[in-house]
Design goal:
The chain has 10 helices and 9 strands. Helices cover about 50% and strands about 15% of the residues. The protein has a 7-stranded parallel sheet. The chain has a two-stranded antiparallel sheet with strand order 7-8. The protein has one domain: TIM Barrel (Alpha-Beta Barrel), CATH 3.20.20.150. Helix 1 runs parallel beside helix 10, helix 6 crosses helix 7 and helix 9 packs across helix 10. This is Xylose isomerase-like TIM barrel domain-containing protein. InterPro entries: Xyl_isomerase-like_sf (IPR036237).
């Protein structure tokens, strides 16, 4: 909770939205109770991480199972706080392409949950994670748009898209940036609502702590400032979330007395090791500072257009 309070304070101070990942019903209840106790709540998005509590695959073309997934999704979406929800584009744990029947089932499931989203004033963004090939992802967005669904859209993750073209397709750096830009344009051309997860990517060097190849601060990876300058026009005025995991170096990020009090107080009241909580607090502070700096860089790029 102390770490989440640090996130909320940063989001309010810098007028950035807050995106929170949840994996279970327990995570959901903790989040709802936390938000209910805040005097001021920033714009909140919920990133659903699939797990045993949140396992639904809209592309399942067996009608009974598809309905079960839709019913589970509606129940969850009704319970979620916030104004937007992000879910990865997994169609099936083992599928990389969508059959015609799978595409129809996916679009049909989105159509079935659209009224619930409309009632709650929410938008569900289906994130390109690289699980589906781009032509199927774009085809899915076209199918969603063709059915008149207004509350389901696309989440374009710059790191995932760049990594797909750079490593899975094998393109060189400049070509991968070009392909990423073209992909963004094609998704936007479908007419669905679009949001963005923005971060850089280092395809040859995984993060030493989290073992992912993306989620680097803007300008600190292969996409680079030139790549982000190329797509900056797409980001102007859009919903942008900075998903940043800077390299761990907690020693460089001194905590304020207020932050120390927040973290040690939480550790004492919950029986948590104080040293570990302070270390996590320094990592969180470094992460938040990297997000703010990435936001500043993006704003500078947008201002130069």
């Amino acid at each position: 909770m102390a770490l989440m309070k640090m996130q909320v304070r940063c989001a309010c101070r810098h007028r950035m939205g807050l995106e929170v990942g949840i994996r279970s019903q327990r995570d959901l209840e903790i989040l709802k109770n936390f938000l209910a106790g805040l005097p001021r709540v920033p714009e909140v998005s919920i990133h659903i991480r699939r797990g045993k509590d949140f396992e639904f695959y809209f592309s399942d073309d067996e009608p009974c199972r598809n309905k079960q997934y839709v019913d589970a999704a509606v129940s969850l979406l009704d319970a979620l706080p916030g104004i937007s929800v992000v879910v990865h584009d997994e169609s099936d744990p083992h599928a990389r392409t969508l059959s015609a029947s799978g595409m129809e089932a996916y679009a049909g499931a989105c159509r079935a949950i659209d009224p619930s989203l409309m009632r709650r004033g929410k938008i569900l963004y289906v994130e390109f994670s690289g699980r589906l090939v781009p032509r199927d992802y774009i085809g899915l967005m076209e199918s969603i748009r063709a059915t008149g669904i207004g509350s389901v859209g696309a989440c374009i993750d710059t790191g995932h898209v760049y990594y797909y073209y750079r490593k899975k397709v094998g393109q060189r750096r400049g070509k991968a940036v070009e392909s990423m830009s073209r992909f963004i344009g094609e998704v936007r051309a479908t007419g669905v609502p679009v949001s963005y997860h923005v971060h850089d990517c280092t395809p040859e060097s995984p993060h030493p702590r989290y073992h992912v190849f993306d989620h680097r601060p803007v300008g600190e990876g292969e996409i680079g400032l030139g790549g982000f300058r190329r797509i900056a026009g797409y980001l102007a005025g859009e919903k942008v979330t900075l998903e940043i995991l800077p390299l761990p170096d907690p020693g460089k990020n001194a905590l304020t007395d207020e932050e120390v009090g927040l973290l040690t107080g939480y550790a004492a009241s919950h029986g948590i090791d104080e040293g570990r909580e302070l270390r996590n607090g320094r990592i969180m502070k470094r992460t938040l500072e990297a997000m703010v700096e990435s936001r500043r860089i993006l704003d500078d790029l947008l201002a130069s257009l």
